[in-house]
TrEMBL record, chains A, B, C, D:
Domain Adenylosuccinate lyase C-terminal: from-to ranges: 352-432
Entry similarity comment: Belongs to the lyase 1 family. Adenylosuccinate lyase subfamily.
Phylogenetic lineage: Bacteria, Pseudomonadati, Pseudomonadota, Alphaproteobacteria, Rhodobacterales
This protein's name: Adenylosuccinate lyase
Catalytic activity: N(6)-(1,2-dicarboxyethyl)-AMP = fumarate + AMP; (2S)-2-[5-amino-1-(5-phospho-beta-D-ribosyl)imidazole-4-carboxamido]succinate = 5-amino-1-(5-phospho-beta-D-ribosyl)imidazole-4-carboxamide + fumarate
Keywords, in A-Z order: Lyase, Purine biosynthesis
Amino acid sequence: MIPRYARPEMTAIWSPETRFRIWFEIEAHACDAQADLGVIPRENAEAVWKAKDVRFDVARIDEIEAVTRHDVIAFLTHLAEHIGSDQARFVHQGMTSSDVLDTTLNVQLVRAADILLADMDKVLDALKRRAHEHKDTVRIGRSHGIHAEPTTMGLTFARFYAEMARGRARLERARHEVATGAISGAVGTFANIDPAVEEHVCARMGLRPEPISTQIIPRDRHAMFFATLGVIASSIENIAIEIRHMQRTEVLEAEEFFSPGQKGSSAMPHKRNPVLTENLTGLARLIRMAVIPAMENVALWHERDISHSSVERGIAPDATITLDFALNRLAGVIDKLVIYPENMLANMNRFKGLVMSQRVLLALTQAGVSREDAYRLVQRNAMKVWEEGKDFKQELLADPEVTSVLEPARIEEQFDLGYHTRHVDRIFARVFESDPL
Amino acid sequence: MIPRYARPEMTAIWSPETRFRIWFEIEAHACDAQADLGVIPRENAEAVWKAKDVRFDVARIDEIEAVTRHDVIAFLTHLAEHIGSDQARFVHQGMTSSDVLDTTLNVQLVRAADILLADMDKVLDALKRRAHEHKDTVRIGRSHGIHAEPTTMGLTFARFYAEMARGRARLERARHEVATGAISGAVGTFANIDPAVEEHVCARMGLRPEPISTQIIPRDRHAMFFATLGVIASSIENIAIEIRHMQRTEVLEAEEFFSPGQKGSSAMPHKRNPVLTENLTGLARLIRMAVIPAMENVALWHERDISHSSVERGIAPDATITLDFALNRLAGVIDKLVIYPENMLANMNRFKGLVMSQRVLLALTQAGVSREDAYRLVQRNAMKVWEEGKDFKQELLADPEVTSVLEPARIEEQFDLGYHTRHVDRIFARVFESDPL
Amino acid sequence: MIPRYARPEMTAIWSPETRFRIWFEIEAHACDAQADLGVIPRENAEAVWKAKDVRFDVARIDEIEAVTRHDVIAFLTHLAEHIGSDQARFVHQGMTSSDVLDTTLNVQLVRAADILLADMDKVLDALKRRAHEHKDTVRIGRSHGIHAEPTTMGLTFARFYAEMARGRARLERARHEVATGAISGAVGTFANIDPAVEEHVCARMGLRPEPISTQIIPRDRHAMFFATLGVIASSIENIAIEIRHMQRTEVLEAEEFFSPGQKGSSAMPHKRNPVLTENLTGLARLIRMAVIPAMENVALWHERDISHSSVERGIAPDATITLDFALNRLAGVIDKLVIYPENMLANMNRFKGLVMSQRVLLALTQAGVSREDAYRLVQRNAMKVWEEGKDFKQELLADPEVTSVLEPARIEEQFDLGYHTRHVDRIFARVFESDPL
Amino acid sequence: MIPRYARPEMTAIWSPETRFRIWFEIEAHACDAQADLGVIPRENAEAVWKAKDVRFDVARIDEIEAVTRHDVIAFLTHLAEHIGSDQARFVHQGMTSSDVLDTTLNVQLVRAADILLADMDKVLDALKRRAHEHKDTVRIGRSHGIHAEPTTMGLTFARFYAEMARGRARLERARHEVATGAISGAVGTFANIDPAVEEHVCARMGLRPEPISTQIIPRDRHAMFFATLGVIASSIENIAIEIRHMQRTEVLEAEEFFSPGQKGSSAMPHKRNPVLTENLTGLARLIRMAVIPAMENVALWHERDISHSSVERGIAPDATITLDFALNRLAGVIDKLVIYPENMLANMNRFKGLVMSQRVLLALTQAGVSREDAYRLVQRNAMKVWEEGKDFKQELLADPEVTSVLEPARIEEQFDLGYHTRHVDRIFARVFESDPL
């Protein structure tokens, strides 16, 4: 976790305090279920809830762990300090540490996913608003970095919206996948604990019982979760790269917002760096790097080995905290992105009208000119634009061989931008009014 | 693609012949739609179907491409050789190469997914059958590679079934995600082609129209697809590792099938190597390596750059062909896996009864012995097993301090394996009778 | 291996013919050494060389392997068909298949590295030539995609040269690392074969004996090899990205070479796509994806498991063939890259002289103006350039407050590009006349 | 950074205090060099050193950064608070932030590498000692997890030594590669600063001048650094996997050290889990995950984009801290690993003598028995071992057809373990007395 790329709400999920709180809840709910089953006295189960409002003392637990060398035992010892060791003696009965640890991890991942879903909503809101704002703001579409045909800035925002909406839908699924808990004992056979305990604890913690666990919850669920974060990160990178391109000096179709009071660049007004989107590009790599280790974590030995644990201590907080930060940064960037429609037009007209050469070619052939002749006509006028800086439309209008087949009005028509934007509403309907996946 | 790890049906999807066939179908359906719209003459649309049964000549198309340096143009030129260049002149009108290429890729991925789903069914069938066959075959559960408590071989198969069933459900979603097509023109604005063409072509090719495309279909869909394959591969590795452990000389609880006629090892009957599952372990790495490049492919420049293309020429066939092979190999391995229940029992009893020490401890405390005393009693008898090779149950029965609190029958009870298997049916019901995800 | 991204010389290294040829040589040299030791008759060793000029029949070997299910045995059987089974009976004595397979892999990797080193020399030659050609071709340096200060195109080429030279030096080391062979028997103890055989075979095959092998040569060597290819691939991507940026419509400082006869774009002269460097960007991802599996291959079970084998069947040919292709393509791109110095100047002067604002600021403070005042003076003139399109130098010359502290000649001096290029020779000396690492 | 997997010395390298300290030194040395050149007054350069013993106030710098939004400016402002803003006014002259930041990163990486090299020495010392201790401790060699032929525990340690020694040699190279600094100004042209400053600063900071930098030091150097850490991590995993296998219940040839006072397992003496090596397996994944992002960092836009920065804020501390921890843990594990030679013998003799079947086969053929007959003789006796638990040697001695060609003494000879260990000294000489690479 890199402090400057972390937000408090998400960071809190991964704090020792939160972890101990979840452990407590799992143990307390398990005691309730055990009392329901008559396995432990009701009184002892109720006694556990005395610690309901305790803020567990992390330093003290660490101190105990230094002796016991076992985190769950250290916690249970500390818990007994609060509720009395006699009352505490049925806590954790029939359970293994993994029952607590794995269920807790999934509670944390579910909570993290909920924050991320809300983050994505912010990004989606911003994208949707900007898409509608610039629905008809014409700019040049580019393939290979080279001008192709006109499109609109709204379509650019709309496609990022569609991509992020898919990401959100995937994240909901990934959240669902890790929303399982297990209280199944040493190797998952429920030998020392009734499945009813698992059912009760899971229901209270907002989880489903894992249909079949060993000592642990199977890690393909987590691999899918982190893979999903990796795809979302890649979509963030996709948007970031677009904005970085738009802001580069020669293009300047947009800029990350610069507060008027922001120091520094008025002596070099051209020097406003897209540092937020560059940062997002890097953060995407950081999030994505969790994917392969998460997959390597799937193949554990027999009913469990603990190699996955250190990996998850790293990637679970890091990937969720970083993605949370990145999504929020992205929402802000999109929300306040400064768009320069006039520069978009200027860029599009850089080679005066040349971008319409394809359409003119088509118009000529449709007017009955052979493909070869149409090509020759377009080419000779295009070259004057390219080499002499002439205006393509004017050249065509001045070329008698062209005007003999295409009336001036027909030539003018080919340069009508409305031609390129007439399906925008239809595309918007597809994007904003249908299911994302 | 590594020939020895490839099956013909999947390989065929990625052959030039199949690719050209799909290109043909897309172009022909597009012509139909254009004729419906009145954009091109019906007669020309119909003429295209004359090539319906043509097996396109790959060598000839390559020859043309060597001149035109453009694969789609080469194909269209060759197509014209079949249907006559006059009839062919409306083919591809208003489309870009990417319309054909991207739609084709998704058709191929969908078909590949269909094969993979059928493959997974084979794996699931084998796992289910073996799970029920060995539902009550007791073996020792292991955590950290160390004996823990008893479980059953059926539970092992059942958890692999549950994991693979999740993988299958994810693959269905991934298949759905890439089941889109796009016929939207140079930058996705439908400037030169009506959206109705896209709708018609997609319907005929078993796809949905991509809600918003640029020149290309967005690559987050494909990233998710390959990430899903990566998770499935990791689950294959998980099963493979289990089997490799079971087959190692000191464990020998199972062996990959060895046909009786199979040459070689009878002079060294201990030397039957789990080469198939070792191979699967390696194949999992090969499949997984497609994940990161697929994610790196998401962030393309503006409306498209073509950097994704070479990556997909590699990973699309390679990952699907390798996974298809691996799933089939895995189905065979599971189907014919030779299980040694007697060795399972022998392994479990390696430290005569010691595996039950936890239960005895619990029984003693439940019988009123203090935790400290119970621990001492268990320990002193356990040590005789560990150091002198004694039998744990016999030692307990001979220890008056133990028998003073636990009757012999109660002691015997603790060694009843039925205790560990009594929830197997309930777990099986969860696994085999509920939704996988 | 993707045929269109493969060159015959590198592909040949990975053909079955080459593999069998290397197997033959290893076996034949081993027989010589065994004869030297008196372990086998000299006559039998000599007889093996009868097959010296045989081109082994791959189909026949495959046929035998279909029966024996063992590739090395199949080969030996076929070899015996050439030299007589009686003469052949001492071939392979005391060796394991892995002795042949692992030594062969390293021979192949060494040969592949030799081709790659030659490829890198081509890239280096092209970069060096272009660096000197454009040593003083001034262009704007950019940070964050935004204009910063002037640099030269020669420096750009020179830094790519320095990076590739480092890559080449690393590849030499990686080549050295895999240049080992092992003929050490079943678990590496030389129990059935004298170390002298290994020494002889290695010497003849251009390898060093692996100091300690098990059944196999340790895979950290190979992990380092593929990691090195991954870094080189990343440097290729670095160059490719630069060129793609230079070619984008709004920048147009360079273009990939377009042969005058090349079809297609004269009607759209702006539409020359940097498809080669986009392709290189994708190929870099393909090469890089070998790195993680190669690292996952290091941890094998005990003296060997065969999980690495399938991985290497994929990545060894794929990564080397793709890198060979990429380096050659890159050399061609650099060699023929069309540079537009006039566009470089035009881009630099896009905001007429504004790029020199920093220098003017410095000159003012050095002339005794306070930092605040200097900033104010620069800013008010900069803003006229930015907002009204004025020329920065002219505005400064017309600003009496500026000219009161800076004489016109001093102002002119600040716009002298020579200021930025005066250390180029020194940097060139560092790059081209010193050790790369 | 995961606190529980971090050691203070390495963590300190990445603290803000250390970073600011290095910044200070770079700035102070740069001032000296500028004074030498006569660019700034000597007095001002000397004044900077007044802060020589200052422990910079991180909170105060953060406070300033909150306003300036620029870390280097915040630091310089704070520095001026110590040495007086008048004296401080020449600090940083002609430099860019990246000159400081990139040079600092490399100083940190060099220091981290020095710690890691010392760590590796600890690992190497332990491996060497244990190798010699168990040079002749015979154990079974295994391929595919299946018993093959005898080897020794010393050879196992020796091969890990050789692998780690290679890793160390690679790390020295990687350290050398990142031991460069750059003080070259905005785009690397030295426009505003003389190269002599760079030379002076680098010499003082233990670095070489980067031959050609842009705004930044090229990232292929860092990619190679992290790739090297990834290979070392994979070698750690290799050793960890071996130990985990040795400790599994059925094998039990070694155990991680368990202090006699260590709580917990004496009631279950079989339950000593190899948690340290399982942890190392996971840590290896964490370290390795830095490799791909480091490679993705190489291709930056033009003279720099800042996408690499966030990545490095994560991976530079995380990968070095984790590897430092892992190497120390590994050294401890190896140092104290409990070896069970008697279990090694017991495992080897599991199938009484069967492991020698290959040698007997060879002895028979060398005694003139045809290959087919020899095979038949071995097989029929082997089967009695496999199926009836007989002793292979005794069966052979009792088989008249065998004894008719092999005298009892010859048969005994085939079971002599010295045969397998006679080249150990020679291998040790290769490993411990020669160059690692």
